[in-house]
Amino acid sequence: SLFNMCRQVIEGMRDRNFGRIVSIASINGQKGQIGQTNYSAAKAGMIGFTKALALENARKGVTVNCIAPGGVSTPILYGGLGANKAIVDEALIKAQPLPRAGQPEDIAAAALFLASEAARFITGHTLVVDGGASLRRALLGGLRTAQGAGAGDCVPARSVRNCSARSGLVVARS
After folding, report:
1. CB 72 within 8 A of CB 89
2. What is the reported pTM?
3. How far is the C-alpha of 83 from the C-alpha of 143, rounded, in Å?
4. Of 14, 30, 35, 39, which one is the catalytic site residue?
């Protein structure tokens, strides 16, 4: 768990007056997700933990931040949905302003930035990395999925009507 991992390293960071902690939560920790109450609550807890730990350790030169990814093209997303990668990537692209599917490397780049000297004045922050999907969500009026697995983050109902039968996604406006 995040708590147990941080407990193992925080004192050494405080003793050195330097440290970087970057955790990976989820956009669901900020907005919630239908059918994923426990997951959303756990990720919201990580975000709160990040803020509290940042406050407790800032004076000792330790920055604590977290990343909240949206839909990212990984086997856990398209495999968990029982869908073809190309179909899921197409849905991800349609669900966000940036015209490409998020990749694990996008999350890694955010983590490297937050761990770098360039981020020395950033602490207690949750960096959303979702291609702008959370911005678009407000315009679409919300999403709901029967499959879960984060699909509601990345698949607007009007974008999937023609491919839902092929992909196994069941999406409806809320």
Report:
1. no
2. 0.75
3. 18
4. 39
